[in-house]
Amino acid sequence: MNWSRIKNALLREIRRSSKKRNWYLKDIKVSIPQERKKILIKNGFFPSSDLILDFQKFGFNSFLNDRDYAKLYPINHPSISTLIDYKSHLPILLGDKKEWLPDFFAFFSQGTIIFQKGIPNKLLNLELFLKSAFDTFGDLIVKPITEGGGRGIFLLTKENFDQVKKDLTKKDFVVNNVLKNNHFLSDIFPGCLNTTRVTFYKNESGQNEVLMIAQKFGTSLSNSVDNISGGGMACSIDPKSGEMSKAYTFSGVPGWYSEHIYSGKQIEGIKFPDWENCYKQIQEIVNHFDFLEFAGIDLAFTDKGIKVIEINSQPEARLTQVGGPILLNSGFNEFIKKKGYKPNL
Hints:
Radius of gyration: 21 Å
Strand order of the largest sheet: 10-9-8-7-6-11-12
CATH topology of the largest domain: D-amino Acid Aminotransferase, Chain A, domain 1
Distance between the termini: 42 Å
Shape: globular
Helix content: 25-40%
Strand content: 15-25%
Number of domains: 2
Order of helices and strands: HHHHHHEEHEEHEHEEEEEHEEHH
Oligomer: single chain
Structural class: alpha+beta
CATH superfamily of the largest domain: ATP-grasp fold, B domain
Number of helices: 12
Largest sheet: 7 strands, antiparallel
């Protein structure tokens, strides 16, 4: 009997079991009374959700909880979820809609150029290729192909290139030009790209239906990204009017704010200009992904039109409910139950 193999198998199972039991340890650290934390964890929610979701008004059952929602992965077909979750596959998913890609987009694997859009000569080595990209597009954004939540993203410039170029040959990355928001969003916070999250699901009629829309904003603490876990802010957008709600943040003093906590610009009550046309474009993008049953798309409103930044096959439950409990949407409630959602409350 191979005791070493049995031991290793047991250790792997213990680690898997520990991750399931301690799922809540991935949460953002916030100041909440210990007894309240226990209640939230028992009901399947990250404790930080107490600062965002109105459990007092709606109760726990109206909200999609983090623990049991995570168990559903993959909600889409496994092969489709894998395709979505790799940022390097974005050009494949967009097909002939290349105008939705950033002007420059490249996928590198261990320093080898696998795909690129924007530089005529792709036969250059990595260093010469990126220097050519600098000359054409200026600073670049580098992203690991599988990380989420803004993790591992950094700004690549001519100044820091020599320091990080070796790292670019060790892993797989996607690189694109630095996008800039249109005036409306950059006026609220100009320090980074502020992206718009659109979550949709396939309804009973077989159509991709927009479930919610949220606007994310960077802050002085979130550096080159707008992710909430990195110090950003997020609010909901009314799909009918384009009006933004208050925005929540875990940065500084966690809570809901009518204004941007650093720029002081008004958020609550402000409407997207030309929202009817914006929503038509959003719906066109959502319809393009008719092979998906459920996803969250990050979009960038720029002066050159809407750009698709990335697709999430299982978008975060908290951000998805920034506008309220999504289980009150009867169509989505039925959809997610058919996918096996059974809250263990």
